[in-house]
What does this fold into?
Amino acid sequence: MSCQKIRKFSHALLQKSKAASLCKVLKTSVASYGNVASKGPTNQIVKCCENGQSCESNSGIQATGSPAIPTSPSPANHRQVAGKNFKEVSPTFSERAFTTAPKIDSKIYLWSRYNEMKRLVHDLIPPGVCNLLNPSTIYANNEVDLDEVEIYGFDYDYTLALYSNTLDTMIYNTARDFLVKHYKYPEGISKYDYIPNFAARGLHYDIQKGLLMKIDAFHYIQLGTVYRGLNPVPDEEVLELYGGTNHVPLEEVSGFYGKGPVMKQFMDVFSIPEMTLLAAANDYFNSNDIEYDPGHLYKDVSVSAFPHSDKLESKDNTKYILRGDETYAVLHRLASHGKKLFLITNSPFSFVDKGMKYMVGKDWRDLFDIVIVQADKPHFFNSCGKPFRRLDSNGDLQWDKIKSLDKGQVYKQGNLFDFLRLTGWRGSKVLYFGDHLYSDLADLMLRHGWRTGAIVPELEVETRVVNTEQYAQGLTWLQALTGLLERMQMHRDPESKKVLQDWLKEREELRAVTKNLFNPHFGSIFRTCHNPTYFSRRLCRFSDVYMASISCLLNYDLSYTFYPRRTPLQHEAPLWMDQLCTGCMKTPFLEEMAHIR
It folds into this structure.
């Protein structure tokens, strides 16, 4: 069905482009003819001869308005081109002098182009084309052949176990109360309830300034997404705070694992309540004009909010788990096809055991060849200091030396170097899934050559937004308007500048509307206006494939090959049909698309 929609969309695109181009040619021809006819004598309209016959003038209207008079052909005025005779007529000096084009009102011209483009954009998005994205799709950054994958590895939280939003509220309330009772923060902070959908994954926090913000892939702060507490910071103040620019130097943004000397990037889903608590505490101090050290606040909130698993252990965490039957289906399917499975998680065994029994059953360990808990990622992947320790059936630590990693046993800590030595599981035959781009995937992708799959639960919500007609129309028109600004900026007279300023204002309004469709404070986790976010760039760098949940694997055969879409670089033409339908080309050049085939 989606292929039919794409073909219809492409056909409509091509036909509309041809029609627009033909209409423009006809308008130009009529305008030129009318201009010449009104200014004085002109040559007769000539048509080409066929089959070697003599040329004759078309019946036309001379300057006097009388019918054209046939004339005898002159050999000097004929030439042979591609088997056809054409009559050449050289205009006189007086005729050339009076055939200059009339001066066009640039303001009228700009608005005519604007209206023409708006009609074109509206007509080229047929009903139904907005529902092409499936939230259960697995997206490829790199080519992956599942037929070559023999071993599947998993993180636990937000990979095997997905949680409801009520868990965020519980973590927030627990951390807020700990902050007040243990660290003796003002009681007024207890009045701040959790705000769902305030923060988003991938945001940066300026530890010294106490500012939460979104940064793009080029280290630029997206103006309009900087918050001090719960209030946005004006763009002028942001520029002043950062030395007259919204660019943050590389050494300040973050280190390899998302934390630099100045900025901290929040990369996992569990960090959303922490960001909200930071914003609430900052807001309380600012609203009550209380001096405080933002750096100490950051440390205290971090300790209060994590480790999350320790806080969940004493509670019935199973009531927060979603879609456990899908997790069981994925694991059972892989095991039944002879795939080896392993688990590496930072969570403690009692926490994992309770959740896995709820989702899979009491014999869940029979599905896994290796189970490792409290692994201390990312250090597990980049350090060889900690040895493996075995846990007995009660979860108590044993001190025997680990010479092999056996099925049915549970291991604690350890390191990847010993893991590789004891298992021999290396290279692209291993595919590991996790939700944290730094702790779960970065080292495995860059240093060890494993295949990696990122779990991005936010994809489901963002896909629903992208599939709406409001988003499709708004984004397509935003791209078209941006292209018009690019092409029409050479008009620099005062009237044209006013028009261009109106367009720039509309462009900013469209950007704000598009951002608010995802999150009114910070927008999409994948884009800052037109640029990818810092999160999005890391997602592409550290994951071969990404998806909303591991249940997406159920939609694909285990010998399926994922091919990344070839999106054109800025200097490349969109020569592929799927690019003509997915917006990966410059919409303003719709009129020229008919020639790109």
